[in-house]
Give the backbone structure.
Amino acid sequence: MPSSYFIGLMSGTSLDGVDGVLAQIDDAGHLNVLAHDFAPFDHAFRSDLLSLNQSGTDELHRSALAGNAIARHYAEVVGALLQKTGLQTAQVNAIGAHGQTVRHRPLEFDADEARHRPAVGYTLQLINPALLAELTGIDVVADFRSRDLAAGGQGAPLVPAFHQGVFSQSGRCVAVLNIGGIANLSVLKADGSVLGWDCGPGNALMDFWCARHTGQSFDRDGAWAASGQLHPELLLKMTGESFLHKQPPKSTGRDLFNPAWLLHHLAQFEDLKPADVQATLCTYTAYACSQDILRYAPDACQLVVCGGGALNGELMRQMVAHVPDMPVVNSEALGLPPLQVEAAAFAWLAFKTVHRQTSSLPSVTGARGARVLGAIYPR
């Protein structure tokens, strides 16, 4: 079948930087990654983005400038991908650009019972897609989430449809766990149906605590967590978080799982060693993910793990221990390395948008129906 070229760009809730892939996609939507690139955010810019997750002074101005900066970071990754593959801009059909999520409040506002108007809420991803199109000379597809919100959905997670396309196995259940800043789960059932939702925190809380106490942006291989001791009382307090006990569809972000949330839970445990807190946070992430897996995925499922958390050895050891009867594999075993999965998803989503094909799943987001996602900014 004829193929086309799409670039996917993702900067997730971990706030570590931009992952990008250049993929070849045939008319049936089968994807082959040709190149991957990563551009880290420096500490100052990461701090700027983190501050925009909460209300603050002159935030409209700061958000607009951050959107411009995100576009420039994305453009640098596009340039690197083109250089690695030798492709010209005219050969690339479109860029799928997720942008940087700084607020995610679906279905929380706008309701008017007297007028029978349901709540819509909002989700906000910072990026200037027009600037990205101008800088790269390539069509840009952005704003993937808001169309699903308009149809009564959560707008997240969007990757389960992509997971179905690349990880599903005929006649077998596959659960795909993406552990970024927030963890999300897709359950690809043997009968072809798909479920998906956000489980809770992934790396976000661990990264914050690690940076605060070690100066490192993340706990490499979970070594610091492994050096500490689990604190059962703190774990019990955190597992009482109501989001963990909500029924899907559900989605979350740093609006909930943020430093203020963590410090509130730590207020009565001031004497805890920092390494013990990190160990407990690691167990908390594994608990939140595994409880949803055990609740909704049949025992016969295979668990595929992707995202940065798949490279955290201590977290992965705990995940295996929490689901002892389920085979657990890194997504690379199925042909797509963990740090490429989400960027590849947005290349695939851009492909679907350009071809005016729906890419949302009502069974995941709770929307009234499947929708064509994203807005196109011509080059």
